Amino acid sequence: MPFATLSKVRLHYYERGYGPAQVVFVHGFQASGRIWQLVQEALPEDQYHSIAIDNRGAGQSDAPPDEADFAIECFAGDIHEVVTQLEMRDFTLVGHSMGGGTVARYAVDHPEMLKALVLLDPSDPDGREMSADEIDAFLDARMAARSEQRARGGGGDGIIPADEGGSGDFLRLLGADMAAAPERRLRGSMRSLLNMRLGGAVAALPIPVLLACGDQDELIPLAAMLATWAKYPKGTGLKVWHGAGHSPNVEMPGEVAALLRQFIERTVPSRRTLAGAV
Q1: Which pTM was predicted?
Q2: CB 167, CB 50: distance < 8 Å
């Protein structure tokens, strides 16, 4: 199993393929890099080389001791250390849910490293206007709801529980990763996300961007998703799957992989050609 020893943490990542097109997948709030497994498997190995990182505190990666160690900026910094070690450049960066905030932060900090950016049911790059006390109350309520959800056997974050379909072993292992997520990671990452204000910066990103989501997402409603889409550069792509929920990478990985291939193999090159002709 591949690991990257960074300046502050040791991170595990899932790696697949040996092709020339490079993709880096980033998970969200409670999940781990495992959530991208089915999408990775659906990409042709001889055409794509992909990694899906277990963020610090997720899966088999190190979990530092303090809540502040799990800020979005920390996740984005870890990504940069990993891709630098692996000598990855000109790659497509893909983030799901809260991972949308992480990849937005990375894209703003390192646009020169990227071929394109893909946001799957992403969080708002501007977080939410809340006081410190309101954030504390929100986090307390979210942790209580998580405990109740776990007690009922729910997957969390809109992920389908193992008894409702899909690949049983895959979902069981993903559920175990989610259940093991330390509360300090969840509190720290959510606090950081709520305080993020990147709308102005992402609007100026110089790379192709695509936002994809499900119209049945109960965690982030479609209206909120469209408001997020509007904050990204003019010409940002939009794909809405009818009937899909918050985690299309679990519900319909083949369709997600097909969309990624269309974007990476057709849309991005055509946009670069047009940009070069201007």
Answers
A1: 0.94
A2: no
Tens of pLDDT along the chain (278 residues)?
Answer: 799 999 999 999 999 999 999 999 999 999 999 999 999 999 999 999 999 999 999 999 999 999 999 999 999 999 999 999 999 999 999 999 999 999 999 999 999 999 999 999 999 999 999 999 999 999 999 999 888 877 776 666 667 654 444 567 899 999 999 999 999 999 999 999 999 999 999 999 999 999 999 999 999 999 999 999 999 999 999 999 999 999 999 999 999 999 999 999 999 998 766 555 44
Neighbours of 108 (CB within 10 A): 16
Cβ partners under 8 Å of residue 79, min gap 6: 24, 26, 53, 93, 102, 103, 106
* DSSP-derived secondary structure for 183-217: HHHHHHHHHHHHT---HHHHTT--S-EEEEEETT-
CATH: 3.40.50.1820, 3.90.10.10, 2.60.40.420, 3.40.50.2300. Which one for 3-277? Answer: 3.40.50.1820
